[in-house]
Amino acid sequence: MVQQLGHLPMGWLLLALLAMLASGGFFVGRVQAERFNGAAGSVRVHSRPNYHGYYVAMWTFVPALVVALAYAMLGDGIVRSLLAGELPANFQNMPSVELDVYLDSIARAAFDHGYGGADRVFSAIANRFLELQGMVKASAIALALASAACGFFLARRKVAPGFRARNRVEGGIELFLFLCAAIAIATTVGIVASLLYESLRFFSEIPFWDFLFGTRWNAQTSAEFGALPLFYGTFMIALIAMLIAAPVGLFAAIYLSEYAGPTVRAWVKPVLEVLAGIPTVVYGFFALLVVAPAIRAVAVWINMTLMSAGITAEPLLAAQPTSALAAGLVMGIMVIPFVSSLSDDVINAVPQTLRDAAYAMGATKSETVKHVVLPAALPGIIASLLLAVSRAIGETMIVVMAAGQRARISPDPTADLTTITVQIVSLLTGETEFDSPKTLSAFALGLVLFVITLFFNLIALRVVQKYREKYD
Amino acid sequence: METTITESRETLTAGTSMDETQGLTYPRIECKNINVSYGDKQAIFDISLPIPDRSVTALIGPSGCGKSTFLRCLNRMNDTIESCKVTGEIIMDGENINDPDIDPVLLRSRVGMVFQKPNPFPKSIFDNIAYGPRIHGLAETREDLDEMVEKSLRRAGLWEEVKDRLSSPGNSLSGGQQQRLCIARAIAVRPEVILMDEPCSALDPVATARIEELIDELRKRYCIVIVTHSMQQAARVSQRTAFFHLGELVEMGETDQIFTNPRERRTEDYITGRFG
Question: Which positions make up the signal peptide (chain B) (predicted)?
């Protein structure tokens, strides 16, 4: 019997139970509230019956939900530790890893409706496992019901004409919304904490300053962790990208918001935003297969021309098959919509009365844009550029495919460079063990990347905030 | 076209002193059969209206009667609205300003405008005033420009209040000061006509009184057209009043006559507060 309980589908069961409890609580609360509502013309009722219903449902549902969540998180662990405690002495001396593996196979066997093999010890343990699981499941359900009943009766006793059920429900909704926001924040904090923890382990082996300012990076083969060439590559490519994206995106935004008629705008703006929807891996092979060979061909031609003209004796440009320029150019095209879309928004937010004032003084369109609209929108435009920069720095796929693997500091844009993101990818793919400085260095790089993009985003947000204060 | 406009400005400046001494007025702008429509919706029906020089003409009427739309015809600001279509003749200095050959940019330098809400540029007080002279090349030297800024601010009655902080941003002034800054900015381009679109509707009574004094002062030099919702204001500042209703011009005449002895029943109903 207890073993049968072990097979209970707890997920569905708890879900149905919670739904039943909640709707039951709602109806009881509502009916009870309706009674005094209909009976008395003399008593003034604070909340409508529905709110009393919600209130009782809330107090029935939430305690049961807490129990259900606790079971979902801890149930398995409790069964296992109970079983481990009952095991014979020779099991107690096993290393914990082996014990875990053994218990895994027990759980699997128990889940497949019993063990049919010859090992009688194993079979006995599997049966005991099912028994224990049944007990835990049954007690979880009992506990959920009991706590729901407690909540239900406590809440029901509150239902009265003067009870402010509506305000209490409002408070409950607020708490729920707060918890949702807290999940996002907690996740961020968790990620940052794990980045920090692993980075600290890395820095306990490699000195911080050697990492930050060392010029030799060779994490794959020998233990050289000077990340400066990676930072250089990252910024070089981001710079090339911004040299494309900043003017093109800004001018596109000016055209869209100031010059384009409504029909042109209705077409061009969505098309520009499609650019943002193209998967970055598609940009990546565009960079690798189209742009990089073209740049190489041009670089080779420049080298030949210069050499045949006798200006240089050796090839001036590296002319590699993958290059910083290729990755940067394509990345620039990728971030154009980020710049144009955000800039377009801030330019549109410039009050029409300012434009009217300039036109009314006999300014032309471009004079108005240059002297009035752009200065007014400048903080927002700067913010959009900063967001684009942090996007370009964090971009991975394009540089993995088109920038190269060689860590070096070279001013030549046709040379191949490598970036922080490229190195993180190559450090963490394939066979890895988590204790070596090699893999830990990926976390340190990730931390640096996080700090840089956070920095840019913070500045951008600050600038946008100041701008809002001024115009609202 | 540019030469005509420059010439006409010069003849006007030459004529100014003479007229000032004699106190003459003559129709500065002659509007004939103006129709305006936004897409399919007609906003103004066949309005003809002479606007005298050196005086204030007030346009009154209930909301949506087309008075602001009409005002915006006078410097072709309606050009900036895509769906807006204006027909009819507006004769100014012998030229029809609705003629496609007329450059609206140059026209607007002759017809200044002040808006409902004070809208200083996000620049310093000085640069707000200097903006117009700069884009139109009115000042040869830095001294010229300084002088022009001072003169405009003085005419707008703002000089004493801001002379020590010309480099602080225009937005830092109070609402009434901002509106006078906008008037000074319009004057700085040396317009002949100044259009005002409910210039006091965002201001408190004290600031309103200052602007009204200023309008009375400016009327000695400029042709002023003001749109207002306040009938008291129209009575106080204007010499001539035109009453608009549902896109039509109901009545126009001397302000005293309109307010004391209107010819039309609708005018009387409106100014006595029976509708609108």
Answer: none
> Searching chain A, which residue's CA lies closest to the CA of residue B120?
A354
The yes-or-no verdict on residue A125 having pLDDT over 60 is yes
A362–B109: do the CB atoms touch at under 8 Å?
yes
Q: A193-204, pLDDT tens digit by residue?
A: 999 999 999 999
ipTM, two decimals, is 0.84
Compute the distance between CA of residue A428 and CA of residue A440 in angstroms, rounded to an integer.
9
Contacts 24+ apart (CB under 8 A), B248-253: B248/B45, B248/B46, B248/B47, B249/B47, B249/B48, B249/B49, B250/B61, B252/B49
Q: Is pLDDT of A100 > 90?
A: no
CB contact burial B33-55 (16+ within 10 A = b; e otherwise): ebbbbeeeeebbeebebbbbbbb
* Separation in Å, CA of A469 to nearest CA in chain B: 12
Query: Is the pLDDT confidence value at B257 over 70?
Result: yes
Q: Do A367 and B117 touch (CB under 8 A)?
A: no
List, in order of start, the domains of chain B with CATH numbers. Answer: 2-271 (3.40.50.300)
Q: Which of A199-203, A437-441, B190-194, B237-241 has the lowest mean pLDDT?
A: A437-441
Please identify among residues 373-432 of chain A the ones whose CB lies closer than 8 Å to any CB of chain B.
375-376
For the ranges A303-317, A457-471, B211-225, the lowest mean pLDDT is seen at A457-471
The pLDDT of residue B26: 66
Measured between alpha carbons, how far is B210 from B214 in angstroms, rounded to an integer?
A: 6
Q: Report angle CA A122, A125, A127 to the nearest 5 degrees.
A: 110
Domains of chain A, CATH where assigned? 2-163 (no CATH), 208-471 (1.10.3720.10)
A266–chain B Cβ distance below 8 A for any pair: no
* Across A278-282, A430-434, B86-90, least confident range: A430-434
Q: State the smallest CA–CA distance between residue B136 and chain A in angstroms.
A: 8
Tell me what the mean pLDDT of segment B208-214 comes to.
92
Distance CA A259, CA A368 (A): 12
Q: Which residues contact A403 (CB under 8 A, 6 or more apart)?
A: A233, A237, A322, A323, A324, A326, A327, A416, A417, A418, A419, A422
Inter-chain CB pairs, A–B, below 8 Å: 73
